[in-house]
Design goal:
The complex is a heterodimer of chains A (128) and B (594). With 128 residues, chain A is an alpha+beta fold. Classes of the chains: A alpha+beta (128), B alpha+beta (594). Chain A: This is Tax1-binding protein 3.
Chain lengths: 128, 594
């Protein structure tokens, strides 16, 4: 998932839709995020490229809505409800995910296993 | 004929002469001319016995007359063989400046440093003799040991040599070379005045009158002479604190320069002025003024060479004491080995904690247990030559195979000793604090306020010290014994120190600091006597310091080993930082749960 600054980024993404769960007053999604352009990218354990300042999923509460929806630990969020997540600060990302008037969030996430799966599938079918 | 005979006999009686020399060395010789010559007379019999095979051979090793010892210098193998010292030896009378007649400085009690080539024993002061000696003497000497049957044991030896060292003969010899230097300096200072005065005295009528310019020159001459005199007195006419084995090259150079200078001026004066009775007085005054200028410049040169050159640090000396491993690092400038040695010794007396021989070794009980566990029996071996080596080898091998527990014993013993010392220290501190509460300073204005029914006895510090010494004496003694310091502090010295502390209003901790940590050697030193050290070096001691040199300064029971390393060359670069460029960001990896 390395990028060249200034060039468009291509990635294989998975569409995940999470229904927020109401717990008392809050709407929770059931995962934790880390990263952001104002954070230190070197401490990110999930990224390949240690200069990647994107938003990563660092923890998933088991049995929560995110777990049920298929989100995995180490995923990188590319978009949340259409909003870009690759070049945002940590606080902006949090705000996008925790809007009180939205019940559902549609995420585009990418992970390395997706790329490999696509490569495998492309390799097994000869080009026509 | 006789010399040939003596040569042959020398070869034949070499062994006998060796034996005689060994006998000579068995007695405690060193360090004092008188005792050496007296002992030599005792050994007159031994000499004759040793050279028995030929009259010539024995005659060669006659005991030298006592006066010989007083003038000549310490023999060292290096100095005799080098041409440098041989030629300089002839000129030594003129070339001394601030040193005494150097070499026999071993015999004095001052802080003298003598050179020794390696391989020679410490006590070779008795080998000072004239030039007709046997050159190979140094290679055949033996070290005194305490194991031969009819010799003096080692403890007696050290005790006797310490006694010899304590007697300080001939203190005036230290001041001989400053006296010489003073004479030469005075002569140099009087010379311009003589230049001025002699024409006036001898042919006053013929002199051309010289008005204002001469008077100006007189004034400048007077002030320059005054300055010269004051600065010479300040800088150079000090009693030296150390006597060096070889002469101080720069000083002797400068002395020679001054002498040459003044002599050539006198020569010129004598030939050009006194002979033809020169009438131009102004020229003579100018000549005298130029001499004073030149002397001032020589003094500048002396200042730079003697005082300034060694101030900029260039080398780092590591000084290690051989007995307990205390080490220090010092930075010095460009010095010769002997001057560096004197400097190191100056620092040694105030930096190194005092050498306490009682604190040194592992207790014998730990170390000797290894060897004593095995007994080796000889089962009928005939040859006894390799007996001892075989025995020791088997014992070492057996000891190596055994499980070695001595380190645990050492550990527990150390812990035990430390605990004991701490306990005694606690008792001592409490006792001293309590003792100090018994007295307080008597204020004069309280006299009227105190009731007349209980007159308090007013004591002077000595009595007060004695009064409060009693309750803490036992605790103090036990503590000193635990730390093995009891030989350094007598009861008298403790009371003196207590009196001193009371007089200066010190707290108990201030009183105790002297006993709780071993202080520098200077604290325990009796400064009335000098200290003798021996400089042992592989290179001539007037050579300059350079990298990798090692020399050592030896005393009777320990020595200091000095290693020289040059200070690194520093390349200093520059980097300018704009103060506005100091900006910071937070380095976080925060995790938010959504």
């Amino acid at each position: 998932m390395s990028f060249v600054p200034g060039q468009p980024l291509t990635a294989v993404v998975q569409r995940i839709q999470i229904q927020k769960l109401r717990q008392g007053e809050n709407l929770i999604l059931g995962f934790s995020i880390g990263g952001g352009i104002d954070q230190d990218p070197g401490q990110n354990p999930f990224s390949d490229d240690k200069t990647d300042k994107g938003i990563y999923v660092t923890r998933i509460t088991p049995g929560g809505p995110a777990d049920a929806a298929g989100l995995r630990m180490g995923d990188k969020l590319m978009q949340v409800n259409g909003w870009d997540m690759t070049m945002v600060t940590h606080d902006q990302a949090r705000k996008r995910l925790t809007k009180k008037n939205e019940d559902v969030v549609r995420l585009l996430v990418t992970r390395k296993s997706l790329e490999e799966a696509v490569k495998q599938s492309m390799g097994s079918f000869p080009r026509q | 004929m006789r010399s040939v005979f003596s040569l042959l006999d020398r070869k034949a009686s070499k062994i006998d002469s060796l034996r005689s020399k060994v006998d000579l060395l068995r007695l405690p010789l060193a360090l004092s001319t008188k005792s050496i010559s007296s002992r030599k007379s005792q050994l007159g019999v031994v000499w004759e016995k040793g050279g028995g095979s030929g009259a010539g051979g024995a005659r060669k090793h006659r005991p030298p007359p006592a006066s010989d010892m007083d003038n000549e210098s310490t023999y060292s193998g290096y100095s005799y063989k080098s041409s440098h010292s041989r030629s300089s030896r002839k000129h030594r009378d003129r070339r001394d400046r601030h040193r005494s007649k150097s070499r026999d400085s071993t015999i004095r009690g001052d802080k003298s440093v003598t050179i020794q080539a390696p391989g020679e024993p410490l006590l070779d002061a008795e080998s000072t003799r004239g030039d007709d000696r046997d050159d190979n003497w140094g290679e055949t000497t033996t070290v005194v040991t305490g194991t031969s049957v009819d010799s003096v044991s080692n403890e007696d030896l050290t005790r006797m040599s310490k006694d010899l060292e304590d007697s300080s003969p001939l203190e005036c010899r230290r001041y001989l070379s400053p006296a010489l230097a003073a004479v030469l300096g005075l002569f140099a200072l009087i010379t311009p005045l003589a230049f001025l005065a002699l024409p006036q005295l001898l042919w006053r009528d013929e002199l051309a009158p010289c008005g204002t310019p001469c008077e100006g020159l007189y004034i400048s001459l007077a002030f320059k002479l005054l300055i010269l005199f004051i600065s010479t007195w300040t800088l150079f006419l000090r009693p030296p604190r150390a006597t060096l084995p070889r002469f101080f090259i720069f000083r002797s150079l400068l002395l020679a320069l001054v002498f040459l200078f003044v002599a050539s001026y006198w020569l010129f004066y004598g030939v050009r002025v006194l002979e033809p009775r020169e009438t131009d007085y102004r020229g003579i005054v100018g000549y005298a003024a130029s001499l004073v200028d030149a002397l001032l410049f020589i003094q500048y040169l002396a200042l730079v060479l003697l005082e300034v050159r060694h101030l900029q640090p260039a080398f780092c000396l590591k000084v290690v004491r051989t007995t307990d491993g205390h080490s220090r690092f010092y930075n010095v400038g460009h010095l010769s080995i002997q001057r560096a040695a004197v400097w190191v010794l100056d620092q040694y007396y105030s930096d190194f904690p005092v050498y306490n021989p009682a604190l040194l070794n592992l207790p014998k009980s730990i170390l000797s247990k290894k060897m004593s566990a095995f007994k080796v029996y000889n089962l009928g071996e005939e040859n006894s030559t390799n007996n001892s080596t075989g025995q020791s080898r088997t014992m070492i091998a057996a000891a190596a195979r055994r499980r070695d527990n001595s380190h645990t014993e050492y550990y527990y013993e150390e812990a035990e000793v430390e605990r004991r010392v701490r306990k005694r220290k606690a008792r001592l501190v409490v006792a001293v604090e309590e003792a100090f509460t018994h007295i307080k300073r008597h204020q004069d204005e309280e006299a009227t306020a105190s009731s007349p029914k209980h007159p308090r006895e007013v004591m002077d510090p000595r009595e007060a010290a004695q009064a409060i010494f009693a309750p803490m004496a036992r605790a103090m003694q036990k503590y000193l014994r635990a730390t093995r310091q009891q030989s350094y502090h007598s009861m008298e010295s403790i009371i003196n120190h207590l009196q001193f502390c009371i007089t200066h209003n010190m707290t108990p901790q201030a009183f105790l600091e002297r006993y709780l940590s071993p202080g520098p050697t200077l604290q325990y030193l009796d400064t009335s006597r000098g200290r003798q050290w021996t400089l042992v070096s592989e290179e001539p001691v007037t050579s300059a310091l350079h990298q990798g040199q090692v020399f050592s300064l030896r005393r009777l029971d320990f020595s200091l080993v000095v290693t020289v390393t040059p200070l690194p060359f520093l390349r200093l670069g520059e980097e300018f930082i704009d103060p506005k460029r100091h900006k910071f960001v937070m380095k976080l990896q925060s995790e938010t749960s959504v």
